[in-house]
Amino acid sequence: MPYVDGFVLAVPKANLEAYKEMARTAGEIWKEHGARSYVECIADDVPYGQLTSFPRAVQARDDEVVVFSWITYDSREQRDAINAKVMADPRLKGPDESPFDSQRMIFGGFQSMIEF
């Protein structure tokens, strides 16, 4: 079963096209360096919860959309090696040029538990 990196973030609606362009480039880079898959999803049905929710988690404002994404790898070891290559790749822009506030991004690595 794959090892998964998961991400939740808020993207200003005005920056959505720039984010899509960045994500396409990032996906190509991750795949080129060995990731099994790279998926970006835009929120379609994510209500603002009373206690917790995707929008609350990233402090999404009215002018932002929530993005949920993940990258899969064969193993944690492979993920660590691939991410080291990706972070050193000069094609990725630095955080100063990001179309979203990376300080409100939630991310983490997960071991697969069940897969059908």
From TrEMBL:
One Pfam family recorded for the sequence: DUF1428
InterPro entries associated with the record: Dimeric_a/b-barrel (IPR011008), DUF1428 (IPR009874)
Name of this chain's protein: DUF1428 domain-containing protein
Organism: Phenylobacterium terrae
